[in-house]
Amino acid sequence: MTGADRETDAQFRARLRKFLSTHAPGPRPRDPAVRVEWTKAWHATLVDHGYAGPSWPREYGGMELPFARQIIYQEEIARARVPGPLGTGLGIVAPTIIEYGTEEQKRRWLRPMLRGDVVWCQGYSEPGAGSDLPSLRTTARRDGEEYVVNGQKVWTSSGTLADMLFCLVRTGSPGSRQKGITYLNIDAGSPGVTIRPLRDLTGAAIFAEVFFDEVRVPVANRIGEENEGWPLVRTSLGHERSAGAMNQAASYRRVLGELIDLAHERGLTGDPLVCDRLVEFEMRVRLIRYNAERTVSDILTKGEPGAGSSVSRLMIAAFEQDLHEFAVDMLGPDGIVTAPSGQAVQRGRWLTGFLMTRASTIGAGTAEIQRNTVAEQVLRLPYDPAMPPR
Length: 390
Ligand SMILES: Cc1cc2nc3c(=O)[nH]c(=O)nc-3n(C[C@H](O)[C@H](O)[C@H](O)COP(=O)(O)OP(=O)(O)OC[C@H]3O[C@@H](n4cnc5c(N)ncnc54)[C@H](O)[C@@H]3O)c2cc1C
Fold this sequence. Notes:
Blueprint: H1 3-6, H2 9-23, H3 32-48, H4 67-80, H5 89-100, H6 103-115, E1 120-123, E2 139-143, E3 146-157, E4 164-170, E5 181-187, E6 193-198, E7 207-218, E8 222-223, H7 230-233, H8 238-265, H9 272-302, H10 307-330, H11 349-356, H12 367-378
Parallel strand pairs: 1-4
Antiparallel strand pairs: 2-3, 3-7, 4-5, 5-8, 6-7
Bound molecules: flavin-adenine dinucleotide.
């Protein structure tokens, strides 16, 4: 038994907190290019000191923590306000590689992803294939030990930063739907890949569209078998995501506290309408916390997240939209001053949040699709005939 194994939860929390306060990378740089390097350096620091990948196997750079410690980890990360990872690889393709990848793929891809040396982005959605993903049309034609990929992806978050794209491609016939989909990882620097930023309503370009024109991809980049990519799509670090719900609960607790401070600073707490809304948000942020605890409790007692996780996303998406909308209203005309003017309240964070959170009920499955999931899988109501069977 090592010293770390004999540690109590409280000792682990104290050790982690000390590490985060000693090594946290300081204020967020304003220059986007500098910010990317700053974020990468932070994630490399986490891996190099053994504080990254709370649920990942140790041999690939992770901590392999028991679930209760993962919760502590997520709470402390939220508290420390350190930068999150770049790209979308850690929560989506990493667990897929861990579960279905070959040993060679695990060694090649996992550690560089965790360190932030290689940024991974998701190429699933296409024009015409979002909620109904099995209708995707990007093709991959086998040619010896390579696939030749043609088609287009869209809404690729952080796409302009991508070094690797984890994609779903059609290897079956055009009408084969989920039976003809293959999971293929594509080097974003390959000849024939074009990545174009898509400007969003905040003025930033967090999305990109990606075009593939006769892109040659080694068969060795395929995860799982040809035409058998669909079942892999649902793989996630279920437990890590549930522990992440505690991170979100802690983050929103902090954000609401900051909004309440702002209401005090601006002398608005005498307004009964303001107080009424703040109380409502206080109740909702507590419900988010209780729901996260319920999810955690289900995992500890039944081994799986259960119904709590299905409603979490809907609750959080509605909460963050309403909270930012209220903040902008509360600030009156000052609330619509944008950051570049230099006059913006708190660098325009509430207005940016208001604009950004419009996407919360679309990304990673729209609110309507989430409601379908709750209806079908939690309430056991009839299945939506428009969607593929789950
Ligand atoms: C912030 C954000 C980040 C994203 N990041 C990525 C990414 O990195 N990679 C990636 O591949 N994609 C990404 N997406 C795309 C996202 O997955 C899709 O936008 C989403 O799945 C919806 O697909 P769609 O936009 O094609 O809308 P559609 O599927 O065309 O839906 C249009 C409308 O119809 C409704 N609808 C559709 N089908 C049904 C149904 N059966 N029942 C009831 N209502 C229905 C929807 O709810 C929606 O209101 C991102 C999107 C956002 C907003």
